[in-house]
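Researcher: Going back to the complex we discussed earlier. I've cleaned up the inputs and rechecked each line, so this should be the final set. Can you rerun the prediction on the complete assembly and write out the structure?
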Amino acid sequence: MDKMPAWADAVLVPLISILLAAILSAIVILAIGENPVDAFKLMVDGALMRSSGWGYTLYYTTNFIFTGLCVAVAFHAKMFNIGGEGQAMIGGLGVALACLFIPFPHWSVALFVAMLAGGAFGAAWALIPSYLQAKRGSHIVITTIMFNFIAAAVLNYVLVNLLRPTGAMDPATATFPAATHLPTFQDMFAPEGSRLFRGSPANVTFFLAVLACIGFWFLIWRTKLGYEIRAFGHSESAAKYAGISPVRITIVSMLISGGLAGLMALNTTMGEAERLVLNATEGAGFIGIAVALMGRSHPVGVFLAALLFGFLYQGGAELALWTNIPRELITVIQALVILFTGALDNMVRMPLEKLFLGMRRNGQKG
Amino acid sequence: MDLVTVLQVLDSTVRLATPLLLACLAGLFSERSGIFDIGLEGKMLAAAFASAAIAAVTGSVWLGLLAGIVASLLMSGIHGLASITFRGNQLISGVAINFLASGLTVLIAQDWFGQGGRTPSLMGGGRFEPITLPFAEALSGVPVLGPVYAELISGHSILVYVAFLMVPLSWFVLFRTRFGLRLRAVGEAPEAVDTAGVSVIGLRYAAVMICGLLCGLAGAYLATGLQAGFVREMTAGRGYIALAALIFAKWRPWYALSACLLFGLLQAVALRYQNIDLGGITIPVQVMDALPYILTVVILAGFVGKAIPPRAGGEPYVKER
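Model: Rerun complete. Updated structure for the full complex:
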């Protein structure tokens, strides 16, 4: 017998967790002498009331959808991929190499090839940790943390010593050729002379992220592989008994996870910066953890959570611009969301379960 | 390379190894009791900020140290609450703590001091001053040993000596006391400890709090000993290097000392030389940066001496199954 109806588990628990995180964030804002209501209004104004605000919000959302799905795939196989950051960095390298060295006739071809390159590079970066987890029993959390740092060193070396144009000071590649520039929302939706989405970085990759959500749902709930991943995640011994190879599922699900992280680089590197910079990921790999936890590893949840964090990121930038609240407020909110939806899940869940059990008992009596 | 250069590199090795060592021993206590802790970084960061902030305001480094320890203990308390009381995921709790520290320190620093997320530079009584050990001056004339004593062993701040003393102390507590035996047992087979009538929850909280105390020392040393004040993200991945050292040391105190000294040496060399020229082959500085992590992955892979973590690590203890 389930202790709680499914809707309460899927909707009520995350909502209460977010509410707790929001209350604590408001207290933090009060403590540094600002008004939380004004701050929230400013965030809404900056992120949602202007088309360029939406352009930034959806740009961040695109990043977080990819990294959120990356963490979610691993969660389904009961693994914690904390290496999305490193996989996205290396994915960016793949995207940059494709854009720099292949002469593309049109952006759509470039997008397709860069997608393959970024995905393959990201997946490759997840290969060694997943192999070590599957074959040697090394804990995937520790190895992926280590690989984040190794990725940062690799990227640093490649950018400073190999890909930096001669004479340039900052560690970044040359700007990609014009044929690889992706159409932004402004190019796609703004009529001639209109100010719609002006100057904002959201681009065609957003639709790719939405497609990834649909593909994710199809993969996990409608294919044999997805079934095997979920079965393995629920019980390794049962999965083994059913003839599912733990080694294969561990490696394949981590490859998919790393590949999704690598795709994030399409948005930041090809869509926005149009060159590869050192800090292209900006911590999005870690935000994926919060997004996946909050979205309960379901694509709809991940999409909504990514939208919320996109709003927080753009709203946080507005706050930093107009008030004394630094952008780090968003890091605090992110930490609280991870804490309540992930680590302190039982704190929210236990009283709720009691409540529902009590209600059911009363119902039976009456 | 002459003796002076070698001594300078080794001297900075000792100083850079100190925060790693304290954090590594902190992780040792926690993980030996079965509580994984990837939040070492966050605790150090919180302690670094609190110690620098209080030392800057009061002018007393000792009050700063106390504040650093309190801040780190608070973070430990959250970790304990999430992973022991509410049986949550210890890894996710650690991630949350790292972000919480990373965000809150800058937020509060900006609010208190308004210097872009840093504290004012500490001066005079706000810092731990180097201690000159007895006879360091008198013996410095003795060839080789004199300079080694005067430059390398003498002239560090008190927390460096505390850190190195913590190694035998940790070994003694863990391997020669009843508390240590129980602490190790609770990380291997908590159900056995429970059957013996010893509180699993109590032991694990004790371990997590010791971890907080040591991380507090590590963070305070960073901000008031190694450097003079707090800057944002000043731990710069040291918590993760300490975690790597812990695995490298296979969860043992004396090995932890050698692992931290090795990783400290790598940091010292990377700090002093940008690219190392070995007769035609140039080792880029990024290799030095990545080496601790690469070594750890190799060790974890089990090709060179397998690292086996405590058996009950990461598992919340549920009394009845």
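Model: Worth noting: The radius of gyration of chain A is 22 Å.
Researcher: Good, that matches what I expected from the previous run.
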